[in-house]
Amino acid sequence: MVRIHKLTFGYSRQVPLFENLGLTLERGHIYGLLGKNGAGKSTLLKNMTGLVFPQAGSCLINGQPAAQRLPSVLEDLYFLPEELYVPALTARQFVANTAGFYPRFSHQQLADYLGEFEVPDHAVLDKLSFGQQKKFMIAFGLATNTSLVVMDEPTNGLDIPSKVQFRKIMASALTEERCLIISTHQVRDLDSLIDTVVVLHNREIVLNEALDQLAERLTFTTLREGQEGEVLYAEESVRGRQAIVPNPDGRPSRVDMELLFNAIAGGGQSVINYLKQPVYEQSI
């Protein structure tokens, strides 16, 4: 679906943001793109959607260069940027003017999504609150039924009940033919939603792993006093000392994405180095 090969990009040629970056994203998955503020998440998404152009390397969508923005690619791609602009139109008028660009647009799905989000379709979009605008654009994007849906910080501006609705709606929208990519620095917003985590750190993709595979290789636990054994990462919390430790027995456990992200973004290499080892070496 998405193939990024040796991508080099920077807003200044003297200071590249990415160098030789590689990433492959497939249909049938919900990817969570994580990274610290300023890591380049939004820029990477703009490369995917053809809004900025690589200095070297390539970014292909279904085999076509994203930078060419071919109609056949754009009609099968929906991008929700972090900063929204909505026109002074009602939701119905916006749909009437825009839905025709997407051959598989479903008016019934849009009505269902707006109902779940409690967004009226008769309201003028630029008079809605930012959170309501965000929910309308999320609903519209999913109703396009494009194969590729890219969302940059979609939960910014949403209250807690709306975030719960967002996770429910996104999960229901996934099919084997769709690839959903969600960028965020609010890691907990992606709990129980994504199936694959991608971490952008220090100008490179340091992790692109399915959560079930992470759960088989790592254990996320609270350390007991005097507990021995290898600890890959640990931090203090109100629940005690939270840690990531090897999981040589392969017993699945729940992945604590916030703890995982802190371990990587904090500069520690122990978790990444451990995951790079072949499985058979970890069991020796």
UniProtKB/TrEMBL annotation:
Superkingdom of this protein's organism: Bacteria
Pfam families cross-referenced by the UniProt entry: ABC_tran (PF00005)
UniProt KW keywords: ATP-binding, Nucleotide-binding, Transport
This protein's name: ATP-binding cassette domain-containing protein
Domain ABC transporter, residue spans: 2-227
MF terms in GO: ATP binding
InterPro entries in UniProt: AAA+_ATPase (IPR003593), ABC_transporter-like_ATP-bd (IPR003439), ABC_Transporter_VariousFunc (IPR051782), P-loop_NTPase (IPR027417)
SMART domains per the UniProt record, alphabetical: AAA
CDD domains for the chain: ABC_DR_subfamily_A (cd03230)
